[in-house]
Amino acid sequence: MGAKGAMLGILLAAGVASAQEVSFDDIRPILQARCVMCHSGEAAPLGLRLTSLDELLKGSANREVVKRGDPAGSELVRRLRGISQPRMPMTGPPFLGDEEIALFEAWISGGLKPGDQSASAKLAPAPLQRPSAGQPVTYAHVAPIFASRCVKCHSANGLMGSAPEGLLLNSYAGVFDRDERLRVVPGRSAASELVRRIRGQSRPQMPFDGPPFLNEEEIQLIVDWIDQGALDAEGRAAPSLAGSKVRLQGVLGPGWTLDSLPLVVGPGTRIDKSPREGDYVEVRGRLDGEGRVLVERIRRR
């Protein structure tokens, strides 16, 4: 935002932001970076699209989200501050900082000034980001996909209430929570329930509001991330997950395989409903130290 933004930062730090100076142009970069990944297109929660000033002013299917001159009564501000739940952006924490929220408050107090851009000028969600040549895929590359297609449900206060089956996809730690069972097996995308769900090998296919489901480019990026070790945003290795429970579905293949994924079936494996090659089955088991699936139970579905 240049010199104007620097001056505004000084005013905000002093708690005396000048509402007259703030326009939609000033909040546009925040919407672009933190909001339009979810609030765009046909899948926008409650129809709230934040990809233009006109759409923001239109509000959601339930209500307007900004009230001219009344930031405290504006649902957008209430969500950004966590007064109304779920707090936004859904990908937080981190949420917006106080200075960023103060920009929205100053814009609303100042009368929702449009700025230099046309009120209908569109903000496009950021394109899919892949690492530069020779660099690994990290959580930073796949997090925007989770944010735009998964987090609306898979968060603590999502559209379905609590996260379905306890799976949180709004943080790296949440992806690897294994209280219920593990969904991502570092180094082995074929053994990762997350991948099997977005491909439709495990049912129901995800995201739950599809079609459209994830496209091949999005799926491949997630597969590459997992196969390269499911590194965190800084490129650090995933935690050790040996002994974690897994639950997978798919088509039983020759030699105890699941859609070509080798399974370890032993004398202690419980086999129900006499599954045969070509049957759709459910597998429950645990991971060994090499990421192999040690099958505890397999049954025809």
TrEMBL record:
Protein biosynthesis is among the record's keywords: no
GO MF annotations, alphabetized: electron transfer activity; heme binding; metal ion binding
Keyword Acetylation: no
Signal peptide (from-to): 1-19
Annotated SUPFAM superfamilies: Cytochrome c
Cytochrome c domain ranges (all copies): 15-112, 137-230
Ranges in a coiled coil: none
Record-annotated membrane-spanning stretches: none
Sorted UniProt keywords: Heme, Iron, Metal-binding, Signal
InterPro entries hit by this protein: Cyt_c-like_dom, Cyt_c-like_dom_sf, Cyt_c_Planctomycete-type
Domain of life where this protein originates: Bacteria
Name assigned to this protein: Cytochrome c domain-containing protein
